[in-house]
Amino acid sequence: MYFLIKPLGSSAFKWGGVSSILISGAVNTGYYEPVPAPSTIYGFLKYAYIIMGIGSDAPEFSGPYFYAKGKESEAICVHSYPSGLLCRIQGEMCLFKIKEEQFEHRIGIALDRKQKITKEGYVYMQKMLDLSFISKEILGEEPENYGVMINVLDDSAEKLKNFVGPFGGESRPAKVYSVEPEFAGGIKKKLLASPALINSISDKKAEWKCGHAEIDIFKDEGKKIIIDKISVRMLSAGFDNGKRLPMFLAIMPTVEVKDNVKRIGMYSEKGWGSVVEI
Fold this sequence. Notes:
globular; mainly beta; 8% helix; four-stranded antiparallel β-sheet; nine-stranded mixed β-sheet
């Protein structure tokens, strides 16, 4: 079943790097994306399951995707690294890039929650996005609904409807809704929607300890959209019981997956390597 995690305000989805404030000015070598990493979704779901008494761990899921719906149109988007969304709107594809001026630059002060005081020297910067504004830019109209969409493979997740919890950087509140996206139509290509954690890649063949998959650059000749580069970088699979999981080579979306599969790579039950046909 599909759920929409809708932030109740601007959100920060930081994928790595460092940001801080110096006497000489702001320093921000971090990079931010329009959707969260799968590890962020996993943490949100685990927290929700524990709080709601559903279970002690997050359910199996795929995603995240970006979703927006207005009166006239609906957009289903996959992450296009860096700082982009590849969207299918009314059966046609468009590539939307987040511009630097669309981020809200905010300064934060770290708190010591036990002593209820600020931490000395812990002043930092975050780059936040208003997903409502981004949805309007993509649709060309005011959105009636929008947010980060996931597909949860657990019937017990029905209890998550209307749950509100901390989400993304700054732990800003977000509310969970159920949605029924329309996947019919479109160009019908299988696209990598979230980073795939692998061991190696060569000649457009990704390999990991339990399998392999053929991938290729994305082309939509009709709309003249070509993502002519397969991007790879090192990413951590997240945390497990307070310990950081290993770093892996990751294929960054968006690329076309040639094999008839729904996921590729390691930790795919936690959203990594999600494949969607749109």
